Amino acid sequence: MAVLRPLVTFFVAICIFNFHADGFPLVSREIHAELAGDQKRSFSIKDNKFYKDGQPFQIFAGELHYFRIPKAYWRDRMQRVKALGFNAIQTYVAWNFHESKKRQYRFSGSHNVEEFMALAHELGLLVLLRPGPFICAEWEFGGFPSWLLKNQELVLRTYEPNYIQEVEIWWKMLLPRFRRFLYQHGGPVIMIQIENEFGSYGDVSKIAADRKYLNHLIHLCRSLLGPQVILYTTDFGDINSMRRGSLNGSVVLSAGDFGPSGNVTEAMLAQLEMNPKGLAPLFCSEYYPGWYSVWGQANVSRTSTRAAVTTLRTMIEQGFSFSMYMVHGGTNFGFWSGANILDNSRPYQYASIITSYDYSSPISECGEHGVGSDNLDKFEALQSLLRNFSRTPLPPEPPAIPLVDLGTVQLPWKSSLWDVLDKVSGIAVSSQRPLPFELINADYGFVLYSRPGISLNSRENGEKNLTVGRVKDRAQVFMDREFAAVMSRHEEGPSVASLLVGPDQGIKQLDILVENLGRVNYGQFLTDSKGLFGPVFFGDDEIEGDWLNLPLVLDPFPLEALRAALRSRGAGGKERERAPLFLMGEFKLRPDQIGDTFISTRKLGKGYLWLNGINLGMYWEEMGPQHDLYVPASFLKQGVNDVIALELELSFENYRGSVRVAPEILLRPKPPTVGSRTSSA
Q1: pLDDT tens by residue, 319-378
Q2: Exposure b/e, 237-259, CB count within 10 A at least 16 = b
Q3: Banded pLDDT at 24 (limits 50, 70, 90)
Q4: Which residues pair with 232 in a beta bridge?
Q5: What is the pTM of this model?
Q6: Judging by DSSP bridges, how do beta strands 60-63 and 55-57 pair with one another?
Q7: Residue 318's closest CA among 239, 265, 253, 272?
Q8: Residues that are catalytic
Q9: Contact at 8 Å (CB) between 322 and 59?
Q10: Which bin fits 607, alpha (ψ -120 to 50), beta or left (φ > 0)?
């Protein structure tokens, strides 16, 4: 074997050289991989074009995320994508969706990304795969698991040993699952993206550790998947972003992203400069037909259909391949919404993403036709355009999933959070000062910080300031479990709450309920631990020692325990119930009543809703712009359905005029701000 090894090495080197010379994928000289698979199937780049099985090929891809779509609707959404005229899908893999707890992996049910790949292949859709490790995507922490923040020495998104070790463990678990789905092995995956928009965070042109990081990801991917698959990077569609985020003239295809208002010519020239001669196909890796929405903006984002179609027509005629981000956005169920810093020079300008990820896309959140700000049907307009470039007739659009009106559901069972705290409590940790979420294994949701023995006594009635260095993200302050104030990270500088003091105020327990509104998913402030930071002062004195840090366990949701506790109190609960509190109702359905619907939250305040134990996401009536939560038919069931809300703001002993405010929700089709559900078949 020792005698044969030089000959084998020489043979592999010749194979790699020939493959490199014929077109992408380029192969790092450090990786010696066996060329395998079905040699009749090929996907490559030459003459500045993509080639599929030896023929020039334009990629018409649409982005959709398996983690934002109920598994029951994966097929339906892909069929709609194909009916639009697309020949491929592009999707991220969200690391935290599969490993929210360290070394506890989830790849079954709605987490079964391999089944998602197989379904795309069955339906004749190619796949562009984006496994991160960072994805952005307006997703919690950009796809990173929160436990990465426990290691204070770990530095994200660069070549730092602690970070690299975790990435290697994750990718070695993940990437081999996709080997059988590679195109040359008979599967649908034609390209794999490395990192994501790295030029908006790091700089491979100036920082050696950043360049080493990107190279390491490339080598790791090659070692796990072999040399044949095309690797690519995505950055903004300008030369400066690409220089910072990709490897000029190297082993990956450098691609850019832009929307209808972007400079198509600039993006084209940048890609020609960044990629080797002949290996620079025109490719917009994210073409934006819409945009996301954040809590607090005036209206849900809607963008022009005419502009999206006009620019796309120009791109296609110029030979561009593209992936439309998003062709179908879906929903940020659970605690998965991310957040952005709106101004990177002002980190307190924090905005969390709403529950709906409709994105003003051609296929709306519930699968109907999206309508642009110009009131034109995006689905029909794009379908009409793409039909002109299809060599075969487009398949029919699937039948519409019915929207059902289920009417009003009362929420008569009520209980203060304090009365059922034992049902949702995790493991409490004592400390001298409040601890971040991550150090007490609180991934998402809420942590309750408690400190007994706070003296509110004073010679005279007045106010005294409770000051926290930084709240991340929103805190409700209670004294002896009576609401006192709200603090928020939206404030510049320390957060301050004024508490009443006086001769008869006494000594009370301080409770601060802190909510994670979503870890930052983009930009320079990506390291976004949650909780109370800096010393906590009451007046001039630090509150130190005897802190109790209690994570609330709401995922998995303790449905049976809460239902039993709420029922035991009887409908109506106490005469006076103050937030935060749990509200519960139920409704019965016949099989013919089950369909898609929306829950109107207009009579609630702020909180989260669970339907049959499934977290539908956040509602926030005061902030808006979202006022309806999407309920897929697959979340409903024949017989009794349970609805539970964690209501943080409203207290239902209040009156409006002479009418008592009753907690209730309305299940009905969403107001018609999107298009018809009529099939175009």
Answers
A1: 999 999 999 999 999 999 999 998 877 777 999 999 999 999 999 999 999 999 999 999
A2: bbbebbbbbbbeebbbbbbbbbb
A3: very low
A4: 193, 253
A5: 0.92
A6: unpaired
A7: 265
A8: 197, 286
A9: yes
A10: left
